[in-house]
Amino acid sequence: MGILAALDLHPYTLVVSSFTVLLIQQLVGFIGKSTIQEFAWLFYLRVGGKLGLSNSFVAHTKKQEELHKLNREKRSISAQDEYAKWTKLNRQAEKLTAEVKSLSDDIAKDKSKINSLVGVVLLFLTTLPLWVFRLWFRKSVLFYLPTGVFPYYVERVLAIPFFASGSVGLTVWMFAVNNVISSVLFLLTFPFKPSVPIPIRQTKVEEVVPESAESKESSPEVIDIADAN
Amino acid sequence: MSDSPSISAEERKRILRERRAAKMAKGNATSRLNTILTQGNSVKDVSSVKSVLDQEPTGATATTTGNHDLDPDHHDIEGFINTPGINASNDSVALSNSEDIDEMFKKIFGGQVPGNGTDGAGSEDPLAQMMKMFSQPGAGTGTNTPFSEDPFSAQPEEFKYQQQLVQYNTYRHQVWKFRFLAVRYFALLANFIYHFYIIGDSISFASSSHQFIRELIPVEPARSFFTLFSTIEVVIIASYYFLGTKEGFFSTATSNNFVVKLLDMGSMVLPQLQQFKTIAVRLLGYYELLAVLLGDLSLVVVLFGLHSVLGN
């Protein structure tokens, strides 16, 4: 309780915050980090464009449209008949291609930045708080169970690792919350999973060959090499 | 060649064989063989192969090696080198060196296969035997797992069927898990809510972050919470165990377990480890039952924990 008092944290604050962090962690695990990163990227493209953050993407789209138009124009004329015009267009297309490439690189850099930013946010949201809780509040009692509800041996188990009987610490609380959240997620998602049908074994049906045909097949035409010579 | 429909295939073969034998008996086998070998060549008579039919019988080279004089005038050292196992039994003497090596390998690898090395199964490729042992998660468990049949004899359709069967078994296990989980959570929540409301007293069935809650004298209805809890657990765990053994989803769930896989790998080196696999599968089944109990206890802890927040 000493650390809690020093930080002016009430145990129930810890109960709620650890529950929330574990819930977020389980949800992130369920949705998938890559999916969240993709969503963040799409959000950045949509909102960042309006805010002027993702200018390179807008420029890239414009340049690509221009390139497409140029290529179409270039294809419409003959390189032999209108050589000068074709060369001019080709030069422009090459220049635009180089610009598009450099913009693509910029976008890729932006994307990796967004991905790393999402990673850092998730780290601060899920992993780091749990480590802080484990390090700072490992000796804090989160709550006490009512007397007489559980027998002594169950209270002892719930007081793992070193708390007084009847109290619940962070270790047991985090284990319990993880267990319950994953079970609830399973309960909520399993009905929407596609069912697996009973597999049917494919038995090979052998074709019934008439006896005369079989004997004909088994004794093919004998070629006498010696006779041939 | 006069082909008449009345002659049977066997008879026709026999006639051809006799005619061929008669032709061979006339001699000129070497020239005939060279004609066959130089067919299509622009330069004739380049082949100088001699037919075995025209070779002079050499007599006492290979076949008489077994009839050694026990006390010869002078010892032929080459005979000692070339004759395989002069001290061995007379049966093995006739084998050539290469045949000996083949036989030796067959014996070595045949002897390592469980069972015997002389029957059809034992004379298989030893690598295939090892792979077979490696890919049999159900072996030794006494359960009818999808892999209990020989996977190497299986056709692609059969292999696909086995894969689908594994998927189906896993899905069935999950279905049962879902049903039990729903029943468990419903029963436990009902038990908790019932006691929460029946006691009425805001302290006797309440958890708190304050230690004074432990000093209170417990009321009688609060004790019945654990009685009901343990009854629910006994019924649910017993039914789950019964269904798990009957439907065989304990073995399905444990077939991918690290310990079982390790035992499978170990049994390739030490076949005695197979007997521990049965124990491991059983223990993992019990662990699943323990997980049910711990999961239910977790729900109660979470409910009390959240209640301690609401009570403050």
Brief overview:
The complex is a heterodimer of chains A (229) and B (312). Chain A is 70% helix and 3% strand.
Question: Would you mind describing this structure in some detail?
Answer:
The complex is a heterodimer of chains A (229) and B (312). Chain A has nine helices and two strands. In chain A, strands 1-2 form a two-stranded antiparallel sheet. In chain A, helix 2 packs antiparallel against helix 5, helix 2 packs parallel to helix 7 and helix 3 packs across helix 5. Chain B is built from eleven helices and no strands. Chain B is mostly helical. Chain B is rod-shaped. About 22% of the residues of chain B have low confidence. Classes of the chains: A mainly alpha (229), B mainly alpha (312). At the A-B interface, helix 2, strand 1, helix 6, helix 7 and helix 9 of A face helix 1, helix 2, helix 7, helix 8 and helix 11 of B.
Describe the secondary-structure layout.
The complex is a heterodimer of chains A (229) and B (312).
Chain A: H1 2-6, H2 11-31, H3 33-51, H4 55-76, H5 83-136, E1 141-144, H6 152-158, E2 167-169, H7 170-189, H8 211-218, H9 225-228
Antiparallel strand pairs in A: 1-2
Helix pairs in contact in A: 2-5, 2-7, 3-5, 4-5
Chain B: H1 9-25, H2 29-37, H3 77-82, H4 90-93, H5 97-112, H6 126-134, H7 156-199, H8 220-247, H9 249-254, H10 258-269, H11 274-310
Sum up the structure in keywords:
heterodimer; A: 229 residues; mainly alpha; Helix Hairpins; two-stranded antiparallel ribbon; 9 helices; 70% helix; elongated; disordered C terminus; B: 312 residues; 3 domains; 11 helices; 0% strand; rod-shaped
- Count of runs of 4 or more consecutive helical residues of chain B: 11
Largest interface: A-B, 52 and 62 residues
The helix content of chain A is 55-70%
Largest sheet of chain A: 2 strands, antiparallel
Family (chain B): Belongs to the GET2 family.
Subunit structure (chain B): Component of the Golgi to ER traffic (GET) complex, which is composed of GET1, GET2 and GET3. Within the complex, GET1 and GET2 form a heterotetramer which is stabilized by phosphatidylinositol binding and which binds to the GET3 homodimer.
Protein name (chain B): Golgi to ER traffic protein 2
Pfam families (chain B): GET2 (PF08690)
